[in-house]
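Researcher: Next entry in the queue.
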Amino acid sequence: MFFNTKKYAEEAEKNHKHDLKQEPSMFNMISLGLLATFAPTRIFLKLHPRHIENKATIEKSDLDQEPIIYFHGFRGGDYTTRVMVKHATQDKGNPKFLKVTVDLLGDFKLEGTWTNDKHPIVQVAFRQRIVGIYGIDYYLSFVLPFLAKRYGFKTYLAVAHSLACPCIIRTEMKHYRSKNFPHLKKCALIAGPFDGVTYLGDIPNVNYLTESGRPSVMNPHYLYLFFNRRKFNPDIAVLNIYGNVLDNTNTDKFISVVSAKSIRYIVAPKAHFYQEVEVRGKNDAEHSWMHDNPFVIDIVDKFLKLKK
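Model: Structure for this entry, 308 residues:
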């Protein structure tokens, strides 16, 4: 009856262990993740001088650019968004993209190319990847302004998987008045846990959506979104994709349909555009497969207008 972290790790990292050899130690990830979780302790992370390893090139452009930025969630990595990024570059007709690897101490590694077209593609990978919602919030609080200042953009499009989904929304709400913080224009949310994770505050088939679409049980993270929903910019377009493996739990194995759909009540009344897509089936809708699912990727690329 409890969230199985071992099973989640196996599912999230299956077939990808060779990609994880150079990552920080478990102690490093957990200790820095804890410091990032609590606002008073983040000062210890900020005391570290920022180091930038720049291996990237910049193509000059006179366009008002809006990058498409890909984010992974808890226990994810660059492999989480690799297939999506590959398809996006193919649909755009340009294989170049910028890869950004960042840690909680504020160090950046930049590789690849910031292209000169309207929508440069950016893949973000978190070095300390075992972090919760507050840790990813902290990542976004300095990654987005760093990129915006360096590459000169004011708005961006986001593709997020799993725990990065609520963090994208939360970050936009927190900085809705800031003129110096880059703001969302579009976001594609894939398998987002907006009101709990299965067996971690969300028991399958217990919570339900009322006639208005509001979940009957709201966890603290959802309550934050609920009380700040008026801060959501009405110019934002939202695509929400979630899974149901049809095993009587109404989940994608880790996120319930109710949790994933609950964001509709928050953003749909204000959003410029809102659309939901439910993916069904044992092989198609599993949480850690959704980001590689060709059907999902095709919908996302059409939403981003990379593909007709």
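Model: The mean pLDDT is 93.
Researcher: Noted, moving on.
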